[in-house]
Inverse folding.
């Protein structure tokens, strides 16, 4: 990818998204919005805060890179001030670091981590900030959280380096942005552990930090639980990187009857041996899914809008069989390259997950 960065990335317009808890957002907004107004005026960056009474909110900062750095500096120093104020009323003696959470498209995380974790290690060492890339994606999105913590100065240096990486490696494919959901009663799901796939670490850039422990079947986000997006993550990474994974049948398929037809060694060879510059497309294959009748509507959408969206985004052909008498399930046939099929499955699973958990549509 040709670099678009000039003079270390200065004066390039960029958008950075931050994930904040309600209390942090309140601190940024200030009384009658005075703090955020001052930040906008002094930094020259556009700062937008997502609406809603959610436990989490998205703060979007847009502008030339130097304006973004100023806005980040003001946010980091504001958070440090909050920490100092809260410590004056508590017996704690050691000052906790300032922590910010960036939301980054999953397709850019590989560049941020670097081969064998080299880039993230370099950023940590040169800035003194702690940087961690989440192993799985935020619910119903193709974005991951990148947590930065340290002194305000270390955080500013760290953000500068992350901006340069993001400018040099633009996102690939369509990004489904993370939208925090309103607080709701906790939904707890049955099911024990989802085994962490030992192969995931060796394929592509998944050995992010340390090997993560086995992941639970659900994750608490804010005040609610969601099914662990482990399987969706793998499917999406496959689509993004065109790197074959082993069949996922053994990792608790999200829905009964789901089979992955990605274990043909010929397909694997075609994918693995394909240089990035060539147009050699892997052979088309077919994959079948079985979906309960009562969930088919959320995949088709009103007048077929959702299924058409999934077809367009994935590039796969998707056929839904007519309902057969006496059967409580419908057959979905997906045709395309393994990458197309995986992305289609990922999008279908995301729709099902949002429907089953009542978390609202994507």
């Amino acid at each position: 990818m040709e670099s678009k960065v000039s003079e270390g990335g200065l004066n390039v317009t960029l958008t950075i998204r931050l994930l904040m808890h309600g209390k942090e957002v309140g601190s940024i907004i200030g009384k009658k919005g005075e703090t955020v107004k001052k930040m906008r005026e002094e930094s020259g960056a556009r700062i937008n805060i997502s609406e809603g009474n959610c436990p989490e909110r998205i703060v979007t900062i847009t502008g030339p890179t130097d304006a973004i750095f100023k806005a980040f500096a003001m946010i980091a120093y504001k958070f440090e001030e909050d920490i100092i104020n809260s410590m004056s009323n508590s017996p704690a003696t050691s000052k906790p670091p300032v922590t910010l959470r960036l939301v980054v498209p999953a397709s850019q995380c590989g560049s941020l981590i670097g081969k064998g974790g080299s880039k993230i290690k370099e950023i940590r060492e040169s800035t003194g900030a702690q940087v961690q890339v989440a192993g799985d994606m935020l619910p119903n999105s193709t974005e991951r959280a990148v947590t930065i913590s340290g002194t305000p100065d270390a955080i500013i240096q760290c953000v500068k380096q992350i901006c340069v990486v993001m400018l040099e490696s633009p996102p690939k494919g369509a990004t489904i942005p993370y939208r925090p959901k309103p607080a709701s009663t906790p939904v707890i799901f049955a099911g024990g552990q989802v085994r962490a796939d030992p192969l995931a670490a060796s394929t592509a850039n998944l050995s992010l930090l340390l090997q993560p422990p086995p992941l639970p079947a659900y994750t608490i986000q804010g005040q609610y639980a969601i099914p662990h997006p482990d399987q969706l993550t793998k499917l999406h990474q496959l689509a993004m990187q065109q790197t074959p994974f082993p069949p996922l049948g053994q990792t608790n398929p999200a829905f009964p009857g789901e089979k992955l037809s990605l274990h043909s060694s010929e397909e694997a060879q075609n994918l693995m041996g394909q240089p990035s510059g060539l147009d050699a497309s892997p052979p088309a294959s077919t994959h079948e899914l079985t979906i309960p009748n009562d969930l088919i509507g959320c995949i088709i959408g009103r007048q077929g809008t959702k299924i058409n969206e999934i077809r367009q985004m994935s590039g796969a052909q998707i056929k839904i069989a007519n309902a057969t008498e006496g059967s409580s399930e419908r057959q979905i046939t997906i045709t395309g390259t393994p990458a197309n099929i995986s992305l289609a499955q990922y999008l279908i699973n995301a729709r099902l997950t949002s429907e089953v958990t009542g978390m609202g549509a994507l």
Notes: Residues 13-87+95-168 form a domain with the TATA-Binding Protein fold (CATH 3.30.310.210). Residues 1-9, 185-228, 242-279 have pLDDT under 50 and may be disordered. Residues 113 and 120 are 5 Å apart (CA to CA).
